[in-house]
Amino acid sequence: MKPSTALYFVALVPPTTIREEVTAFKAYAAKHFGSQHALHSPPHITLIPPFRWPKDQYLPLATALSHFKFQTADLSIDLLNFSSFPPRVIFVDVTQSTLLRDLQAQLEQHFSQHLNIQPKGPFGFHPHMTVAFRDLTAAVFPEAWAHFSTQNYQRSFSVEHLSLLRHNGKKWEIEANFALQP
What we know:
The protein is of the alpha+beta class and 182 residues long. It has one domain: Cyclic phosphodiesterase (Cyclic Phosphodiesterase, Chain: A, Alpha-Beta Complex). 30% of the residues lie in helices and 32% in strands. The protein contains four helices and eight strands; from the N terminus they run E-H-E-H-E-E-H-E-H-E-E-E. The strands form two sheets. Strands 2-1-7-8 form a four-stranded antiparallel beta sheet, with helices on one face. Strands 5-4-3-6 form a four-stranded antiparallel beta sheet.
C-alpha cells in the first residue's frame, strides 16, 4: 500500500501587519473581482513550490529545514506596489534582490541534496505575493489591474525564518517555522 502524502511548500511569510494588509488586498479582489482563491493561503513569497511528501516522513522534512543554513541572517524584503502576469495574476511586487535569489537557489539545492526533491517551478523564481489568480477571469483582469496598478504600496521586513506550509484539504496553513541561520 502506498503511503499517504501531504502537500507542502516552503515560503517566506511576512510579519502580522503586512499579512493583514495583503490579506485586505486579497479580500478586495474577492469582493470586487470575484477572485477569492488567493484567500486560501496566508500572504507569502514561495521559495519551494508545492510538493508531495509522505505523512509518516515528516521528521526528515522538518530536520532538513531546521539544518538549512544561509550565508547571512540579514535578509530584508522590500515590497513595492503591484505587478501582474496577465491575464490572470495580480500580485504585490517584491523588489529583486541578489540575497533573496541566493536564498532560493541554496534552499532548492538543499532540498535536492537532502530530500531528493527537485523543486523547479515551471516559471522559474519570480518573487511576489499573490493577490488574485486562478479564479480571476481574463475578462475581469483589465478592470482588476486598472484598480491595483494605481495603488501605492511600500513595505519592508526582515526575514527571520522559513515557513513550511501544508494543505489541509481546503486551504494552506503554516505547519512550522524554521529560524533562518547563517
